[in-house]
Amino acid sequence: MLFTTFLLLSFTGWGLKYAHEPHGASSILIRMWGGADMAGLIHKIAGVGMLLDFIWHVFYMLYLLATKQTEIKARTTVIPLPKDAFDALQNFKYFLGISNEKPRFGRYTYLQKFDYWAVFWGMVIIGFSGFALAFPMVVSNIIPQFAAGWIWDTFALMHSDEALLAIVFILFIHFYNEHLKSEVFPMNWVWLTGKISTETLKHHHPLEYELMFPDQDKKEKGE
Questions:
Q1: Per residue in 102-125, is it b (16+ CB within 10 Å) or e — as a string?
Q2: What is the pTM of this model?
Q3: CA 90 – CA 84 distance, rounded (Å)
Q4: pLDDT digit string, tens, across residues 85-123
Q5: Fewest Cβ atoms nearer than 10 Å: which of 75, 106, 190, 214?
Q6: C-beta atoms surrounding 154 within 10 Å
Q7: How many CA atoms lie within 13 A of 150 on its CB side?
Q8: Gap between the Cα atoms of 130 and 116, Å rounded
């Protein structure tokens, strides 16, 4: 759901952002969707779909915590911890050749946690500003009179620039880290299958491997 709505929002939003340009990719995108009005309608529907998906995810996670079907543990949580800062520092040292030791990750790396939580602040900024732009008559009833003039330009800037930032991040950082690296190219299938090989788990998430296979880990270490 998130994947589909993100693509729809990206392609329709890009066309709408530069709809005033008569030539180029934006005009092609607008024609592809059947005109600016249709592109705008698809953009709004996809936006509502993404927002509902986000709300469902939040409540589902709260439900799992409330029913104790999941627990917050240091090695398995997606919540950022001090260890993630140390892991990032160790990774930079490794990349720069200062250290020969890679950081040892649990279930999620610090980059994967960043990917996850980026959606939250992105949804707050893009979601609220997008709702305001999509339903101006509703939002105008709660906007203070002193802000009635400039607030709409602010909403448009927030929505457009945060969306552009999200697209750039997904294309140039997320895609490489998760799908375009040599060991998984052309795609990491985990997001479709939900499965990861034991060797990949051991190599990229050693702390999770030790937690899942303690006996095997001790055997390999000769304990």
A1: ebebbbbbbbbbbbeebbeebbeb
A2: 0.78
A3: 10
A4: 999 999 999 989 898 888 999 889 998 898 888 888 888
A5: 214
A6: 12
A7: 2
A8: 21
